[in-house]
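A common beginner's mistake is to predict each chain separately and then try to dock the pieces by hand. The better habit, illustrated here, is to supply every component at once so that their relative placement is modeled jointly.
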Amino acid sequence: MYYRHGDVLFERIEVAPSDGRRSQTEDEKTGVVQRGESTGHAHIIDDMAGIYLFSVFSQRFLSAGKDFTITHEEHKSLTIPEGNYRIHIAREYDYLLNLEREIRD
Amino acid sequence: MNRAFWARNSLRAQLPAEVQEEVRELNRLRQRLRQKIRYWRHKAKSKSPCRLTVTSILQEKNAQLRSLQIQSFGIERFFLEGGSETLDSCGEYVLLRARLDERREMVCLKMVCPSTGAAYVSPVQPGIRTVDQALDWMYQVRNYRQNLAAER
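With all components supplied together, the output reads:
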């Protein structure tokens, strides 16, 4: 099951990766899922109580003990049901450099 | 100067005068093309304003130059202003292709933001032929449209 909020896609998974490999950035602690480089706009989780946003190497995950709402300056808010999610950032192909990369806005 | 250079030059000296002139002309053209490519590569990277149009881009015969001019003009603008053909469409999603030459192409997915209603174009991997393939590639998932529960 997928939930998309702009360039961010939440893929529902059964089990989140084990604790040992988890790490958390400052942005992840405050609920910032993705921050725009040029606009400064961000996809932010409103209330982080009961929500754990973390990374395992370069892949990001979210464990939610309750439904949560994600907001952004340009997009309407989206409420996602509780559960474990893998987070995907949309990618695009750079024809100048001939490589794929995450979309930056 | 290396040995290959002198060998090439001595060979060239043995050619008839008109052939030598053709070789010189070819070298001049190559030099001019290299300068153009350097110029448009800089323009494409710096995204500085330019006086290109979709027609002038499509009239450019050199594929590398054309690709750089599209980058400089803005991929989104180029595709939305009609320099492309439709490969597939599904609801509001449209997969577009611009031919750079017989072998090279640029493929983009046109999407409409469900929140703002704004259309935007995202370049996807060359070789993609359907909207579903493009969406799966973009979000690195399988069966995106079939499994989508909500989007904003």
